């Protein structure tokens, strides 16, 4: 197993502990170095319990989607950023009940573009699912996100995860989470072999951590979904609130 695989497995190992009660862990596991994206920075060592995780500072050649996914016209005058977690039920409701109306009225008409950003939660289901959405093609990104939201109540089975952990141990629980997430990915065109390669790709988890860190620092994101309209965080995510924010952005110089 190479260094990247070891690091990723350690990260997901600690994430699992946060969920299934294996000990008290530092929240700093989700606070990567501010210099993580710098090719010249020294690696930061984060100590959690008695383990060490070395966060590589070298930039690897990306073989995954390490940039914003945009729905709509890239040149649309108003930008909506959505921070969402794939295991978040409110996010699933947003995509089922609010996004279709926004798409029809604003996105498909070229007035608004939607930028989707993963805001990973501290549980293995969410991290694995977010990872796989980044290991598909750009054309298949939003369909894969939709597949995870649509089948959310099946693959994010926390009770079964806890049961397996109690009966068979941590590794079995982690394998269960990986496998359940991979089943959805397979239906979306991500082979099981490609899913395993994605899980073991250090760059993917680093990218997701960086996106999360930026969300916290720049927009004070602390829940999902969080919606940003033309750089302004708004207080809600229903259609009426977002539409008012779009109208305000328009008055300020939008479409």
Short account of what is shown:
The protein is of the alpha+beta class.
List the helices and strands and how they pair.
Blueprint: H1 3-20, E1 44-48, E2 51-55, E3 69-71, E4 78-84, H2 89-107, E5 112-118, H3 124-133, H4 138-150, H5 152-155, H6 158-168, H7 170-187, H8 192-199, H9 202-219, E6 226-229, E7 232-233, H10 239-251
Parallel strand pairs: 4-5
Antiparallel strand pairs: 1-2, 3-5, 4-6, 6-7
Helix pairs in contact: 1-7, 3-7, 6-7, 7-8
What does this structure look like?
The structure is a single chain. This protein is an alpha+beta fold and 255 residues long. It folds into 2 domains: 3-55, no CATH class; 69-251, Glutaredoxin, CATH 3.40.30. It is 52% helix and 13% strand. It has 10 helices and 7 strands. The chain has helices at 3-20, 89-107, 124-133, 138-150, 152-155, 158-168, 170-187, 192-199, 202-219, 239-251, and strands at residues 44-48, 51-55, 69-71, 78-84, 112-118, 226-229, 232-233. The strands form 2 sheets. A 5-stranded mixed beta sheet has the order 3-5-4-6-7, with helices on both faces. Helix 1 crosses helix 7 and helix 6 (158-168) packs antiparallel against helix 7 (170-187). The longest helix is centred in the middle third of the chain and has 19 residues, at 89-107. The radius of gyration is 19 Å and the shape is elongated. The termini are far apart.
């Amino acid at each position: 197993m190479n260094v990247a695989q070891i690091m990723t497995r350690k990260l997901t190992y600690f994430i699992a502990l946060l969920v299934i009660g294996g000990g008290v862990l530092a929240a700093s596991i989700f606070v990567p170095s501010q210099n993580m994206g710098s090719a010249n920075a020294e690696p930061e060592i984060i100590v959690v319990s008695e383990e060490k995780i070395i966060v590589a500072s070298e930039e690897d050649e990306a073989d995954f989607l390490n940039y914003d996914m945009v729905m709509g016209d890239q040149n649309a005058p108003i930008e909506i950023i959505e921070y969402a977690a794939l295991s978040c039920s409110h996010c699933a409701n947003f995509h089922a009940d609010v996004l279709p109306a926004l798409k029809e009225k604003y996105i498909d008409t070229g007035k608004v573009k939607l930028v989707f950003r993963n805001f990973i939660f501290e549980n293995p289901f969410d991290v694995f699912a977010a990872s796989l959405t980044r290991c598909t093609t750009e054309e298949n990104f939003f369909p894969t996100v939709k597949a995870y939201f649509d089948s959310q109540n099946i693959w994010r089975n926390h009770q079964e995860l806890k049961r397996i952990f109690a009966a068979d141990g941590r590794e079995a629980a982690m394998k269960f989470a990986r496998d359940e997430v991979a089943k959805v990915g397979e239906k979306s065109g991500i082979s099981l072999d490609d899913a395993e390669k994605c899980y073991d790709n250090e760059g993917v988890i680093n990218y997701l951590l960086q996106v999360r860190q930026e969300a916290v620092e720049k927009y004070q994101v602390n829940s999902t979904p969080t919606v940003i309209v033309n750089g302004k965080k708004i207080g809600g995510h229903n259609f009426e609130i977002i539409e008012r924010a779009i109208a305000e952005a328009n008055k300020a110089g939008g479409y």
